[in-house]
């Protein structure tokens, strides 16, 4: 068997003109896979594995020494793997073993001189908002020694850091700590405001001014379009409402909220059209294109995700041209290799994997489907249909592995949104450019872009509301292998179907019926369920079964849509009581989703009306729905259908010196249903947990709803005193708090509890059976 040339047959449905007679040369894609594997081994495995793999390649090359092209191919693969592995090892060693990493392991107080490498981003923290900034430390003084370094550090500062723009040179003092990811040398908690010693250069200042002008050009529009236009143009999604982000996820439109290859294609394509109109030709267009790419990277920030998106967008654009599949395949392999040499940590990025898969789908599937549909559709329409379909299909197995679901509306939503993406992006950018000179005219130019963004928002919201927007899919290896096989089969069938107008229309009609007619969800809710912890993200949303179509709801999560959908899936039409354990947003902001379309009896709350904004929101939402609000009484015991419960905390004011009085004032319920005892802890911290244990002598339960989403602030004695067999943690995926804490998970395991989590398993149902069963429905976010 010889190695070169590696070729593949034409993808399903491709026409001969799409690929040429010689087929696909797969040497560059294989080279990219070798580089990817080398990066993974270098970052995750012991270093000796690299020597084993390198020796295997050299032995293979020696065996093929008389076949010149085969040897050259093998040596090229080995060289690519060595280049990426070397880059990864050198970068990782520099991050993990430098002076900054050593000081971080010692949790030393240091003085640093740093340069900010990202825009400040506000994130909610345990004691208030945090400002997160990625930086490059260039000088560190700690333990009495001053050193010049070059180390990536994450700064977690107060709100004074919001005014520090990208590219600023800053002096700060604070405590270093170890990071949770290997691409950082440390995490700095600064003391006091930053001391800015040098501001960004004129290029970064100009980019910042343009970003601000884009925001100003749509500032008078409705909240959703006002937030979406900057996200489309330059990835500035800081103002996107959380509920709308969830709708974009469900609809398969999340890629629009981050800088993607589409953004680059639209911006640079528009620039090239203007250049052609102005008479620029040949090499001049190349120069204009390169300047456009450079300007786009400057505007959107040359972070790894942006550079990756730009590279994949260029490859995808190349793939739709003449001989695009052959040229694009080579370009994809080269792009993956160069990106991994530049930043080896991309090998661990799910976004990188999804971008590569989507681009591969566009290269290998879209041209053939487009050419077949072009027999009965205009070419532009055929391309608009083929590209999102190919990208979505290629990414489906990986998305299912990550989310536990297969989106059924993603292709349709992308097709409906696609015509508005270009106008929203290009006009938003033009409005910002014109607004730098004449703000009023800039607003007028951007107005149609905002209207287009409003259409995209409407598509996301309506798609997310479709009864069968997503189907749960197991994440086990056999289930994912089955899904991959189904995707391959579907790829083969699509080429046959889209070649015929009536077959295509019949397939579209079938998909519409599947989407609009609610399909039964076998086994959900499971028979004998007593409680469901809804997957509401980083928050709590618990549902206690109170009879046919009825439930008591404990907390409503941060998003009305998430809790509303969970209750719909459970068939809950009546809610005799809603208990809000405390007034933090991740427990009360979803209240409107409970009250909106159901018969609700009353809302019970804690006695501490903090934060005041949460208390006001609850009062306003309840008043609008005509639902009374009352205070939960300590010690009160009540009964409803199969449910009995008692309020076991709070007994009074939060403990003196409480780090978070609202959390420590959480309503804690002891519930019994069908022989199962459940302790629902709210967000109580360790001090109030200790008081609860002291006052009750220990609350025995079969199920423990872990306090505060699995934070480290737990009283081990109380946890063990419950004697629970099952621990349920309601927590958001990839949250910024590190929940659930490793120390808490170790405590639960040591106490002999089985642990289930909504971030990993989606909706979690506790079932009353002799083994205290648990059933899950799968995560509904990507």
From TrEMBL:
Record's keyword annotation contains Membrane: yes
Location within or outside the cell: Cell membrane
Keyword tags: Cell membrane, Membrane, Transmembrane, Transmembrane helix
Alphabetized Gene3D superfamilies for the sequence: Ribonuclease Z/Hydroxyacylglutathione hydrolase-like
PANTHER family assigned to the protein according to its UniProt record, in alphabetical order: DNA INTERNALIZATION/COMPETENCE PROTEIN COMEC/REC2 (PTHR30619), RECOMBINATION PROTEIN 2 (PTHR30619:SF1)
Pfam family, one: Lactamase_B
Main location: membrane
Gene Ontology, cellular component aspect: plasma membrane
Membrane protein topology class: Multi-pass membrane protein
Residue spans crossing the bilayer: 33-59, 71-90, 253-275, 282-300, 336-365, 385-403, 415-438, 479-498, 505-524
Superkingdom of origin organism: Bacteria
Annotated protein name in UniProt: Competence protein ComEC
InterPro entries to which the protein is assigned, alphabetical: ComA-like_MBL (IPR035681), ComEC_N (IPR004477), Competence_DNA_uptake (IPR052159), Metallo-B-lactamas (IPR001279), RibonucZ/Hydroxyglut_hydro (IPR036866)
Limits of the Metallo-beta-lactamase domain: 538-723
Keyword Cell membrane in annotation: yes
């Amino acid at each position: 068997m010889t190695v070169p040339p590696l070729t593949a047959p034409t993808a399903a449905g491709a026409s001969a003109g799409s690929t040429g007679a010689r087929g696909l040369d797969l040497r560059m894609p294989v080279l990219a896979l070798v580089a990817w594997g080398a990066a993974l081994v270098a970052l995750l495995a012991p270093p000796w594995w690299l020597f084993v793999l390198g020796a295997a390649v050299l032995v293979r090359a020696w065996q093929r020494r008389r076949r010149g092209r085969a040897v050259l191919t093998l040596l090229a693969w080995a060289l690519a793997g060595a280049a990426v592995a070397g880059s990864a090892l050198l970068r990782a060693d520099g991050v993990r073993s430098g002076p900054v990493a050593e000081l971080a392991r010692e949790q030393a107080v240091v003085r640093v001189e740093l340069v900010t490498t990202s825009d400040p981003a506000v994130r909610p923290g345990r004691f208030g908002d945090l400002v997160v900034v990625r930086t490059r430390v260039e000088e560190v003084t700690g333990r009495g020694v001053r050193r010049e370094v070059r180390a990536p550090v994450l700064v977690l500062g107060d709100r004074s850091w919001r005014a520090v723009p990208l590219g600023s040179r800053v002096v700060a003092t604070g405590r270093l700590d170890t990071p949770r990811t290997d691409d950082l040398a440390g995490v700095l908690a600064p003391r006091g405001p930053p001391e800015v010693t040098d501001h960004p250069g004129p290029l970064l200042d100009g980019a910042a001014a343009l970003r601000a002008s884009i925001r100003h050009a749509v500032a008078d529009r409705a909240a959703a379009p006002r937030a979406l236009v900057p996200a489309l143009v330059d990835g500035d999604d800081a103002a996107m409402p959380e509920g709308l982000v969830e709708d974009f996820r469900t609809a398969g439109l999340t890629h629009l909220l981050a800088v993607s290859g589409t953004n680059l294609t639209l911006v640079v394509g528009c620039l090239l059209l203007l250049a052609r109109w102005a008479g620029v030709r040949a090499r001049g267009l190349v120069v204009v294109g390169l300047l456009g790419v450079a300007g786009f990277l400057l505007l959107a920030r040359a972070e790894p995700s942006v550079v990756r998106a730009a590279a994949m967008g260029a490859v995808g654009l190349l793939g739709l041209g003449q001989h695009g599949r052959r040229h694009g395949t080579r370009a994809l392999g080269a792009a993956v290799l160069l990106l991994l040499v530049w930043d080896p940590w991309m090998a661990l990025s799910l976004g990188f994997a999804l971008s590569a898969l989507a681009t591969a789908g566009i290269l290998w599937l879209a041209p053939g489907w487009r050419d077949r549909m072009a027999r009965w559709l205009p070419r532009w329409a055929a391309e608009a249909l083929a590209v999102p379909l190919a990208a979505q299909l290629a990414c489906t197995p990986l998305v299912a592995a990550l989310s536990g679901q297969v989106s059924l509306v993603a292709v349709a939503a992308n097709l409906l949104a696609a015509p508005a993406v270009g106008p929203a992006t290009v006009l938003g950018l033009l409005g910002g450019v014109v607004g730098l000179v004449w703000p009023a005219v800039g607003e007028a130019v951007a107005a149609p872009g905002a209207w287009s963004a409003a259409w995209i928002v409407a598509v996301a919201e309506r798609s997310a509301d479709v009864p069968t927007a997503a189907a749960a899919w197991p994440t086990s290896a056999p289930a994912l292998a089955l899904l991959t096989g189904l995707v391959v089969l579907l790829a083969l069938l699509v080429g046959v179907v889209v070649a015929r107008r009536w077959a295509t229309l019949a397939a579209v009609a079938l998909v519409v019926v599947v989407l609009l007619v609610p399909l039964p969800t076998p086994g959900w809710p499971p028979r004998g369920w007593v409680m469901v912890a809804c997957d509401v993200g980083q928050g709590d949303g618990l549902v206690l079964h109170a009879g046919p179509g009825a439930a008591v709801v404990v907390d409503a999560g941060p998003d009305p849509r998430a809790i509303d959908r969970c209750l719909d899936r459970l068939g809950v039409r009546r809610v005799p009581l809603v208990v809000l354990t405390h007034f933090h947003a991740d427990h009360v902001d979803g209240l409107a989703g409970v009250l909106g379309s159901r018969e609700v009896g009353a809302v019970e709350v804690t006695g501490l009306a903090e934060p005041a904004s949460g208390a006001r929101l609850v009062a306003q939402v309840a008043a609008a729905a005509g639902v009374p609000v009352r205070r939960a009484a300590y010690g009160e015991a009540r009964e409803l259908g199969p449910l009995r419960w008692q309020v076991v905390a709070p007994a009074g004011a939060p403990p003196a010196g409480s780090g978070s009085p609202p959390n420590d004032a959480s309503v804690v319920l002891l519930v019994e249903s069908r022989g199962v005892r459940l302790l629902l802890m709210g967000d109580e911290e360790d001090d109030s947990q200790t008081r609860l244990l002291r006052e009750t002598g220990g609350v025995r339960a079969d199920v423990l709803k872990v306090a505060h989403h699995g934070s480290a602030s737990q009283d081990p004695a109380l946890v063990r005193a419950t004697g629970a067999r099952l621990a349920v943690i309601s927590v958001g995926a990839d949250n910024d708090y590190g929940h659930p804490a490793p120390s808490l998970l170790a405590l639960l395991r040591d106490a002999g509890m089985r642990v289930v989590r909504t971030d990993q398993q989606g909706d979690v149902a506790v079932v009353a059976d002799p083994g205290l069963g648990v059933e899950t429905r799968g995560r509904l976010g990507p």
